[in-house]
Amino acid sequence: QAVPVIAIDGPSASGKGTVAARVATALGWHYLDSGALYRLTALAAQRAGVTWDDEQALAVIAARLNVRFDSDSVWLAGEPVSAAIRSEVISAGASQVAAWPAVRAALLFRQRLFRRAPGLVTDGRDMGSVVFPDAQTKIFLTARVEVRAQRRYQQLRENGMSASIQPILQDLRERDERDSQRPVAPLRQSEEACLLDTSDLTIEQAVEKVLAWHGEAV
Ligand code: C5P
Question: Residues in domain Cytidylate kinase (predicted)?
């Protein structure tokens, strides 16, 4: 019997990470934030002086990432980098490195290692389509771009960073475009995925919905 997986895919700042982490806690399952691996690759490359257009060098960095996740931090080569990987520069870099097939291939095997009993909840762009195509529950979680920009804005402000809506909105539109137009593993809702639009839902309501769908799937 394969270890069960709940795959939650969707665009940037849709809230999928928060929802996925809470579903994992509710079920007592493991959680994988796959976007963090692309962010870590972008950060490790920057530190090694490798540019985000050097596909082969990036693939080597992705394959060798010395990373550890614990309940509230991400570590790269022993250093806490949770804040560093969320910066605007690294967010843009992550979306560029994620467009390279060799980088995606290098991270594929790593992601599958997170599938351990009693189960895995994961979020990203291609969790249900490429990485865990046999996931029991597949969800495409999204929200209107204006709502996502507002959420990102609030999150930045709460973390003490200065921010304004317009550049965030533009950045999200560009990233949506890049993530959905790329030839490899583009972001799109697969036919089997349940659509969850969280524009008018609280986090708790979104979590309830995922748990309810999952309950129906098993
Ligand atoms: O989800 P998050 O915004 O942290 O992801 C950062 C970037 O990594 C995204 O813009 C996307 O390009 C890429 N990504 C991906 N496939 C995934 C997860 C993230 O291409 N499964």
Answer: 6-212
